[in-house]
Amino acid sequence: MRRHLLSVIPLLVLGAACQDHSSGPTERGTSRVLLTDDPFPYYRVATVDLYVVSVSASLAPDTTASGGAFVTVATPDRRINLLALQGGITDELGRVTLPPGAVKAVRLVIDTDSSSITLANGQVLTSTSTPGIDWQSSAGRPVLNALIQDQILVPDSGAQIVMVYDVGEAFIPPQVINPASTDSGFIFSPVLRAADGQRTGAISGTVVASGTGVPVANASLQLFLGKAGTPENTWPRFGTARTDSNGAFRFAFVTPSSHWATGVYAGSVYIVTADPAPGTGLTRTTVDSIVVTAGRETAVGSVALP
């Protein structure tokens, strides 16, 4: 695993980074395939081990089920702990040379039988354990399609394609659906997106206790897109994160605010909510009007929990 090569470094993030070559003007840059993730928000989880089989991409408009337009860009065929990929850290899955153009679609194949979640108490959850992971219709070796929010360009020098796989979105505790449930398993939802790593930004800050300024570890954060004065239940969620032992957090590979200048989300801004871990006596707070610029990190400073 390594940090992203650019000065700005999604959410599970699978990425491809470019590399310039000097052997000749006709040689195209190779694209590396990387994996990273927004921090998983549940304090009771130790590891989330996802078995990634392969990644494919298409530069053609035709992305039908025939699959003829897709090119395999990585075949890691190994288990990866997504919780080790936090704040923009990536895992290189492979390299490939792509022709210039724009990536129209990205697909990820996983092996659910070889994937697992280990709780903080050491209990391992699998597809066959009780409690375990309910993969629903994705059981086996599903082909997961990524949502592409902005165009992913592939110049002659190579691309940086980042597939954002947010564990907090993908694994849902049954308690969220049924608060009366005491089951400690998870339900899988195939939520992931792909982004151009060279055209995204980041949001960072530190969560502290109001009054004392003491850093708050294991706070759960959510990234939304919304308009001022509208209720939270109308905001689409774009990612999750958690604070480290120093109260620091980071949302990486965030689509620039300029992307939302027109269309249904015109006038929207990024909004971050922060919730403390259970037992702290603190409550939620919200930071709004956050603007993200490509190639830059937006620092929101100290986020105080009352």
Characterization of this structure:
With 306 residues, the chain is mostly beta strands. The chain has 2 domains: 2-198, no CATH class; 201-305, Immunoglobulin-like, CATH 2.60.40.10. It is built from 2 helices and 26 strands. It has a 7-stranded mixed β-sheet. Strand 10 and strand 11 form a beta hairpin. The longest helix has 4 residues, at 167-170. It is globular. Mean pLDDT is 79; it is low at 1-27.
Strand order across the largest sheet:
1-7-3-2-16-19-14
| Portion in helices | under 10%
- Biggest pleated-sheet summary: 7 strands, mixed
Q: What portion of residues belong to β-strands? A: over 45%
Task: Give the averaged pLDDT, no decimals.
Answer: 79
The rounded Rg comes to: 19 Å
By DSSP (H or I, 4+ residues per run), the number of helices equals 2
What are the low-pLDDT stretches, counting only 5+ consecutive residues below 50?
Answer: 1-27
Q: Can you count the beta strands?
A: 26
Domain module count: 2
Q: Spell out the helices and strands N to C.
A: EEEEEEEEEEEEEEEEHEHEEEEEEEEE
State the secondary-structure class: mainly beta
Shape: globular
N- and C-termini, Cα separation: 37 Å
